[in-house]
Amino acid sequence: MVMNTWSSDAIGWIAIATGIVGLLGLVFIVLFFTVGQPFGTLNDICIGLTAILSMVLVWVLYPGQNAQSPLLNKIMLGLALLGMLVVVIGSVLVISGARGWFLAGLYMAVGYALIGLWLLGLNYAALGSNPWSHSLVIFGLVIGVIMALGLAAVPGMFNGIDSQESASWLINIGQAGALGWLVLYPIWCILVGRSLLL
Fold first, then answer.
1. Do residues 78 and 143 make contact, with C-beta atoms less than 8 angstroms apart?
2. Closest CA relative to residue 182, chosen from 33, 12, 62
């Protein structure tokens, strides 16, 4: 993968910032379930910010990716942009109180699933170009697949399902993608950032 006009250090710091904000969101959700508010709101803010930072990461990596497969990478860029927008909408819905946490979570699952498809494409392209270690690429592929499970939440998002009791088993599978975007993806971002800074 050819890097672009952005230096490896700048891309590395963007990746690390993305990972740190994502992990901070994980800490806040744990604190929300043990202590309560305002940690739930702080978690929702971090989830939205992580999606925005992910889009920045996608953008700075795009010129290098685009050199290899222009059409595929335009599609991946579009999916990541749409994913970021859907995640931010979910965050705004729950922070504003316009919708409940369950429906907002479906928006987040679907949005991060789209970002996960970008992650799959990025790491698949990285298999042949070795921008970072093979194990990190494989880790990225696995995370992308887990995040993509969120696509199963699309029907629940479009039907406005806002309670766990009303959700089908398929929608619950979609929520399993949270393991990818809430836990593993931030770790991957930090590891990639660290590898670019070395």
1. no
2. 33
Q: pLDDT (tens digit, 9 = 90+) per residue, 45-72? A: 999 999 999 999 998 887 666 556 678 8
Which pLDDT value is given to residue 3? 46
> Which residues have C-beta within 8 Å of that of residue 17, sequence separation ≥ 6?
53, 193
pLDDT value of residue 64:
62
Structure tokens at 66: 């685009």
pLDDT digits (tens, 9 = 90+) for 3-30: 456 788 888 999 999 999 999 999 999 9
Query: CA 109 to CA 172: how far, in whole Å?
Result: 10
3-state SS track over the chain: CCCCCCCHHHHHHHHHHHHHHHHHHHHHHHHHHHCCCCHHHHHHHHHHHHHHHHHHHHHHHHHHHHCCCHHHHHHHHHHHHHHHHHHHHHHHHHHHCCCCHHHHHHHHHHHHHHHHHHHHHHHHHHHHHCCCCHHHHHHHHHHHHHHHHHHHHHHHHHCCCCCHHHCCHHHHHHHCCHHHHHHHHHHHHHHHHHHHHC
